[in-house]
Amino acid sequence: MKIKPGFSLRKICGVNILIAEGKENIDFTSVINMNESSAYLWNHLQGIDFTTDDMARLLTEEYEVDDATAHKDSQTLAQQWIDAGICEP
Fold this sequence. Notes:
3-stranded antiparallel β-sheet, two-stranded antiparallel sheet
């Protein structure tokens, strides 16, 4: 997988918000906000090819979470990013 270019993560009033940059990414029908752990992953995965295993590894290194939960959460988040059009499979 790879995060699509043209998006920036900004912290606005304490909330992590994904901002589209460039005409091809502008879609005002939805706002994408991220919790702390998804923002952590976003920041560490930009510009590289990655798998859900990579995501799970990052989660277990940063947070007190077991492997099974990290893998399940990574698969769910990756699919959400793909569905939102901000990540390519």
